[in-house]
Amino acid sequence: MHITTSFFYGHQNILNNKGFSKFPMFICTAILMFGCKTGTLERNKNYNKKPNIVFLFADDLGWVDVSTGNTNGNRGSKIYETPQIDKLASQGISFTNAYTNQNCAPTRASLISGQYPTGIDNQVYNVGSLNRQDQRTQGFPNLPIKPFKQQKVISEDGINIFDVFKSQGYQTAFVGKSHGTPHPLKGDYGIDLPADIHHIITGFVQGEKTKSYYLALNSDNVGWTFGSEYVDKYAKPYDQEYIDGVLKPCNTQSELSLLKATPKHLTDAIGDFSVDYIKEKANDERPFFLYVPFHAVHSNVVGRKDLTQKYLKRGLSKRIAEYASMIELLDQNVGKINRALKDPNGDGDFSDDITNNTLFIFYSDNGGIYRNDPLTGIKGHLNEGGIRVPLIVCYPDIIPENTITSQAVHSIDFLPTLADFAGADISELKKKDGSKPQYDGVSFTGILTGEETRLSRTNLFWHLPGYMDERFSPSTVIQKRFGDDYYKLFYFYETEEFTMYHLNKDISEKTNLLKNPTSKNLEIALNMNTEMLAWLKANNAPTGTWVENGGKVPYPKGNGVLKYNN
């Protein structure tokens, strides 16, 4: 893709050259050793290289599904164990108000495109379609609104996050789940290594068509496989060498002997692939952007046998034991990848450490699939349980360690933020047709470095012109910060009704402030109502059409909340 841009300084130390080993040897107990000391981008402006960036993206991991309390207001899980993520939180910055869209595809599409679903190069509002009403949908089958017909993947014509990195000389790699982008991952998306893979593996085994979730298949045609030309080299069953060299040092308190000769889990394979990529690229003059969208912990939930048994012995149900197993497996691979930065060639000598030159991000794509107490809702809802997730970012000497921010950020904000670190001026980018791309996100670099405590932007938006079972109907949401207080206003197109919540005091969204509004609450609601309407108009947001007459469903009235004035 043709891109015009400006270039300015990067920031990282020159590394010692070391060779690479072929087998991933790492010690998980020493994984998150890099120190994120106070500093700014300016402190490193004399360095002549740009930082590597590693972006780890969990799937369906909820706000309270990690054991650290840094990302969730001291509400860390007492059931699920995530020691590596916990260490990362202690050595970087954690966001308690990190947001996504309501499920996988639109969040990933917004992250990669830098746009809300309303963006011209995005248009991905939901997984599959907005036409997902069923018997669980209130009013089904006589629903009044015909949903908007969305796109399933973002446009190749936009300048996405991979294109931005390419404009600055980065090598780009994608290993894991492709959602909001095509699968197989083909097209002009700026990705040098498109190792996308699905967590459902199919093939013929002993003459019968077989389907497996997460676990490699021993196919009649190709042997052990994940159905990926890139990841199949890691598909062989667990053997003693792998158990001793990779898993034992993690001190999982599980019976690793249960794994010998059993099928490899895709989560481990994605981790192994990422480790080898880092080994290969660690000493390159050109920096790399490694994007790792894990499938874990998406359903069908399949843990790793040793970890599942560990949690079953604690008396958990089979369902929750599998989920806990998968979360810990994800955590181990977060550590595995981080260890590769500390010791790329795996020889135990940290002289080839590149953590000081690497921005490391851990994030989830939507809320959890099980209970997210105290948050209301799960994946697919626009309540906090569906859209609030863990986010941790670390970069030694740039990002202060063990810090926490309540600043609200969204998946749209990563493109401009990471562009800052890569040295790209996104205002100078141009698309194929010569036009400038439009981005909805803002950079939160100043929040990361500690130079700012708040963004000048005060609002975020969600817009869904369609249905998904019982979890959403046509609606628009605005969240707005007034000082340090976050409020959230919902508008429902079918009924033309609003609800509003004060998240600081009502994180569970139980008390609708418009039921008996004070004059202050009504003033806040009117302000948000006005901004919601302005945003819808500015983005030409679709609303679907009325089934009865085919007319366009109108936007909310600019003063619609005043009807609640008693």
Automatic annotation (TrEMBL):
Cofactors required: Ca(2+)
PANTHER family linked: ARYLSULFATASE FAMILY MEMBER, ARYLSULFATASE G
Keywords: Calcium, Hydrolase, Metal-binding, Signal, Transferase
InterPro entries according to UniProt: Alkaline_phosphatase_core_sf, Sulfatase, Sulfatase_N
Domain Sulfatase N-terminal, residue spans: 51-423
Gene3D superfamilies with a match to the protein in the record: Alkaline Phosphatase, subunit A (3.40.720.10)
The protein, known as: Sulfatase-like hydrolase/transferase
Signal peptide: none
Family: Belongs to the sulfatase family.
SUPFAM superfamilies in UniProt: Alkaline phosphatase-like (SSF53649)
Keyword presence, Metal-binding: yes
The species this protein was found in: Maribacter luteus
